[in-house]
Design goal:
This protein is an alpha/beta fold. The chain is built from ten helices and eight strands. The strands form two sheets. Strands 4-5-6-7-8 form a five-stranded mixed sheet. A three-stranded parallel sheet has the order 1-2-3. The protein is globular, with a radius of gyration of 18 Å.
Length: 278
């Protein structure tokens, strides 16, 4: 069975490694195929595709898109789509602008509670990447308001805290439509992260499938787990392809390794069959 990883990030969004380092690591880890799925941008993939081709490495186009479902933020991974599709890029440009609007609003809320402005440091930290709340959390760590990124979210940034600002992402069905129109496959990312009840998760999967969704991220960890078996069962029941993704952001997250993923449970159809059969 091929060794693949269809969910990772580079410095083009909130990863710590440049695109070349990610491709080199994938080759070192003996992956057969990789998708770079930066948040709301395809810049990292586009930048490094010629290098991957020179190396004879199978790099799949990808992106992780922020969407709303029942007022919840849900992440949709788009795979194997045409990155030059005008509607896709227009949607991603809009979402990146929404990200900055949200970051500015969070900065303002924190200033109103006595925190010094973080606008200049935020722009320096994000550079050419895509701004997100983890960047704000990192600044809070740097300024010693908190001890870790998770602590920053718990104390300042999660819902109900002083720095929380609701997102205004496009609707789930709009995101799926755009990915499909660009010739790609829409995959529901890391379903276990949303902490939904079983009934709510099944409702999300029903709506996702009705919207035209193609796949479910079934395996997200190195070792086989009951969660993966349960997600595989859901993929079969909702007639979805099964994907695998580490959500790798860099070596500082020692609990994740690029391509270190358990095999898919039996009985599911791997997402790559969607484009191999085209």
């Amino acid at each position: 069975m091929n060794k693949v990883d269809f969910h990772c990030h580079t410095q083009a969004s909130d990863g710590s490694l440049c695109p070349k380092s990610i491709v080199d690591l994938a080759i070192k880890n003996q992956l057969d195929s990789l998708a770079i799925t930066d948040h709301d941008t395809t810049a990292g993939y586009e930048q490094i595709l010629p290098y991957a081709q020179q190396q004879g490495f199978d790099l799949i186009s990808g992106v992780e898109v922020s969407a709303l479902w029942q007022n919840r933020t849900i992440h949709i991974v788009g795979l194997n789509m045409a990155v030059d599709d005008a509607s896709l890029q227009a949607m991603l440009t809009k979402i990146r602008a929404l990200r900055w609007q949200r970051a500015d609003a969070i900065n303002l809320r924190l200033q109103q509670r006595g925190h010094p402005c973080m606008a200049s440091r935020l722009k320096e930290l994000v550079a050419e990447g895509v701004v997100g709340r983890p960047h704000i959390a990192q600044i809070l760590v740097e300024r010693q308001y908190v001890k870790s990124i998770n602590h920053a979210f718990d104390k300042f940034l999660k819902q109900g805290r002083i720095g929380y600002v609701a997102a205004n992402w496009p609707a789930l069905d709009e995101v799926v439509d755009v990915i499909n129109a660009a010739g790609g496959q829409a995959v529901l990312a890391h379903p276990g992260k949303y902490r939904l009840t079983s009934r709510k998760l099944n409702g999300l999967l029903t709506d996702f499938k009705l919207a035209g969704g193609s796949g479910l991220e079934v395996v997200t960890q190195k070792f086989a787990s009951a969660e993966a078996i349960g997600m595989a069962d859901r993929a079969k029941r909702h007639d979805l392809f099964a994907s695998v993704g580490s959500d790798y952001h860099g070596p500082e997250q020692t609990w994740r390794q690029l391509g270190a993923l358990a095999p898919l449970p039996a009985g599911v159809t791997p997402i790559q069959q969607a484009w191999l059969n085209d």
